[in-house]
Amino acid sequence: MRRIADILRKETVGGTLLLVGAVAAMVWANSPWSDGYQAVRDLTFGPAVLHLDLSLATWAADGLLAIFFFVAGLELKREFVAGDLREARRAAVPVAAALGGVIVPAVLYLLVAGGAEGAARGWAIPTATDIAFALAVLAIVGRHLPTALRTFLLTLAVVDDLVAIVIIAVAYTDQLSPIPLLTALLPLGLFAALVQRRVRAWWLLLPLAFATWALVHASGVHATVAGVLLAFAVPVARSEKAGGPDAGPGLAEHFEHRFRPLSAGLAVPVFAFLSAGVALNGLDGLTDALTSPVALGVLVGLIVGKPLGIMAATWLVARFTHARLHKDLAWVDLAALSILAGIGFTVSLLIGELAFGAGTATDDHVKVAVLAASIVSALLATVLLRLRSRVHRRVHEAETIDRDHDGIPDLYQDAGDETIAGDHRQG
C-alpha cells in the first residue's frame, strides 16, 4: 500500500489517471452500451437526512472533489506560510496572474456567447485551471525547467480554482439555507481546535470533517467549499512543544502526504469518469457541439482568454508595482505556462453542470468544448515548454563548464560579462 501511495503522489500518474477516466467515459458513452453509463451516473444512494440521497455523479462532484480541494488548499497554505510565496512581493505576481486568468476569459466568454439565450449563465466555466492535468503536463515535458515555474503554476491554478469555488458559492447557489450553514461552523470550529493542538486521530477528525461537509452541502452552498475551509484550518508550522523544526513534518504537510494519493488516485479520476461521458452522435454531433455559442465561448475563453489574461495581469503588476517575476523565469517561460493554464478540466466541468444542469444538451456542449480546449492548450503548451526545457538544459550545462578551474563558468568569461564574473569571484 505504501508503494502504491508513493506512485500515486507523482504528478504524472495523477494526470494520467485523470485522462484515462475521461477517455473511458467518452468511449463508454459513445458505445452500444451507453445506457449502462447513464445508469451508473444516475445510481442513487445515501440517507435522506441533510439531502444526502445523491446520485453517484453528484457524490463525485460534491464529495470527491471536496477531497481534491482539501489537498489543494493544504498545498497553497503551505506555500504562503512557509514556502516560496511567503514573501508578499513574490506571491503578488502569480496571484495577480490568476485573477487576470479569471477575469479575461469570463469577459471573452460573454462577448462570444452572451447574446445566446441562457448562455450568460456559464460565464465562469473558462475561469479555472485544472491543477492535476496541468501539473502532469509540466512534469512530463519540463524536466529541465526552473522549479519556480511549477510554483507559479501551482499558485495560479489553486488561486483561480479557489476563486471559482467562491463564484460557485455566490453565483450558483440558488437556495441558501442559513441554519445548516451556521451549524457547520460548530464541527468546523472543533476540527480547527483539534488540529491547532496537533491532534491527528482520524476517529476524531474525519467525523467532524464529514459533518462540516454535509452541513455545507445541505445549506445549498457547493460542498467543495467545505474542503477549502477545512484545509485552511490546518496549521502549517511545526509545534514547538513537539520539538520544533526537528520534530518532523507539520500537520498540513502530514495531511497532504496522506490524502494526496486518495485525491489523485480516486477523487479526480472518478469525477472525470462520471462527468466527461458525452454522446457525440458521430461527426455531425461533434460539429454541432463545437459550433454552439456556449462551446465557442468556452473555447475562446480557455485557449485565448487564459493566456491573454495571465500575461496582461503579470505585465501590469511587474510594470507598476515592486513585484517581480522570479529571477529564474523569463517572459517566454510565462507565455508557455499561460497557454498551459488553458487546461480547464475538473472545475470547468463542475461549473458547466451547475450552470446548465447535468445531462442537458448545453451541458454536453460545455463538456465537449472543455475537453477540446484542454487538449489544444496541452498540445500547444507541450511544444513551447519542450523548447524552453531544452534552452534551460543548455544554459545549465554551460554554466557548469569551467575548463580553467578558476571558479568562473566559461559561459560568462566567453561573453565578457564582468558583472556576473565578479559575482562568481565573490561567491
UniProtKB/TrEMBL annotation:
User: Has keyword Transmembrane helix?
Assistant: yes
Question: What is the reaction catalyzed?
Answer: Na(+)(in) + 2 H(+)(out) = Na(+)(out) + 2 H(+)(in)
| InterPro entries linked | Na/H_antiporter_dom_sf, NhaA
Molecular-function annotations in GO? sodium:proton antiporter activity
Which terms are listed as keywords in the entry?
Antiport, Cell membrane, Ion transport, Membrane, Sodium, Sodium transport, Transmembrane, Transmembrane helix, Transport
Tell where it localizes: Cell inner membrane; Cell membrane
Pfam families per the UniProt record, alphabetical: Na_H_antiport_1
Q: Which Gene3D superfamilies match?
A: Na+/H+ antiporter like domain
Q: Name one GO cellular component term.
A: plasma membrane
Q: How does it sit in the membrane?
A: Multi-pass membrane protein
Which superkingdom heads the taxonomic lineage of this protein's source?
Answer: Bacteria
Record carries keyword Membrane: yes
Report the principal subcellular site: membrane
List GO BP terms, alphabetically. Answer: regulation of pH
* Signal peptide, first to last residue: none
Q: Which family does it belong to?
A: Belongs to the NhaA Na(+)/H(+) (TC 2.A.33) antiporter family.
Name the PANTHER family for this protein.
NA(+)_H(+) ANTIPORTER NHAA, SODIUM ION/PROTON ANTIPORTER NHAA-RELATED
User: What is the annotated role of this protein in its UniProt record?
Assistant: Na(+)/H(+) antiporter that extrudes sodium in exchange for external protons.
Q: What is this protein called?
A: Na(+)/H(+) antiporter NhaA
Per the record, the gene is nhaA
